[in-house]
Amino acid sequence: MTKLRLLGLQLAFGWMNLVLAVPAIYLMFGMPLVMRQHGWSGTEIGLFQLAALPAVFKFLLALPVQRLRLGRGHFVHWLLLLGAVLLALFWLIGRHNLIEQRLPLFALTFAISIAATWADIPLNALAVQWLPRSEQLRAGSIRSAALFVGAIVGGGLMLLVQARWGWQAPFVLMGLGLALGCLPFLALRARAALPALEAADAAQGVLADWAGFFGQPGARQWTWLLLIGFPFIGAAWLYLKPLMLDQGMPLEQVAWTVGVAGGVTGALFSLVGGRLVPLLGTARAIVLYLLAALCALVLLSVTVWAQLGPRWLTGCVLAVAASMGALSALMFGLTMFFTRRQRNASDYGLQSTLFTVTRLAVPVAAGLMLDHLGQLGMLAGLSVGVLCAFAFAWRVRHSVGGRAESLLAAE
Fold this sequence. Notes:
Blueprint: H1 3-37, H2 42-48, H3 58-67, H4 74-94, H5 102-130, H6 133-165, H7 169-187, H8 199-202, H9 206-214, H10 219-228, H11 231-238, H12 240-246, H13 251-280, H14 282-306, H15 310-337, H16 344-410
Helix pairs in contact: 1-5, 1-6, 1-7, 3-5, 3-16, 4-5, 4-7, 5-16, 6-13, 6-15, 10-16, 11-15, 11-16, 12-13, 13-14, 13-15, 14-15, 14-16, 15-16
Pfam families: MFS_1 (PF07690)
GO molecular function: transmembrane transporter activity
Membrane topology: Multi-pass membrane protein
């Protein structure tokens, strides 16, 4: 496959990851600001976040994608079908301003969350199917960068679009972006066919599929690393805005520092981190990226404890964003390495669910620590979590890294 063709595929996957991420970020992280302005209570805004629950059940959503074949190139057909459903939902939610209609807004947001979560499965199954193993780390870094850019677009730019052009405008733009992203896959659907499964493989049940995933060399160690490697630095990022406000930094400065500068830094280091992995080696990259995350959290803790001021806080934000970007790129790339080509959807869905469970649980625990132990207590707890992840990664680095290297060598 030529470099130009690979670049085109990477851009197509990156764009689709972006347009699938923006709606959820806009509705669940950007919209609460508008909700508050229209009198929504804190409890109502908190309950609205339950619309993100479909991500926890991605392993179940993956089963029909893997097993129900929609003709030749069925992953593309699944992606296009779910893209069409998402476009219809954008039209429904954008017809009328629903900010005062809590139940319809939640119902449509929940439906959009299901469709976007579901569409992510055939999209990344196609990435595993189409891209050589040597390109999958780059795909992971591009996906990580797309999520950082999605946070800037969905959590900031779309709010400005709505304020200037009204309720419908963001959904029109998101629909256009999605339709544009589907076009390359429509053109390439002929190459999406999978080789026929052997009869024994095709007859396997769901439990046998999952047992096969865990039976891969290094898969058990990778599963634990997937559960604990990212959530602690991710939780720190989630609480950075309120933490900086509590430290006396003005709201506008917080928005620019975390929302824009931090997002851009995370996106850049996602790309850089993915490129460095082949040079460092997977085993070394795992421990180095977790060490960088630990150092960033310790620096932030010292800055808060010593009251070093806005400049140090800004530097800490960028350090957390950089380490989180590099680490997420590596985690996404390794997720693809541990996704078997003949079980693209089911393996990817299972890993995504495992990742999501702790990514949602750790921020809840961090919030409890913040309420009962204060900022330093929360930061200390998250730092201990990253330290444990680093110690575990040091122990299993050769098992996990060896799997990646063996797949690259076999290609």
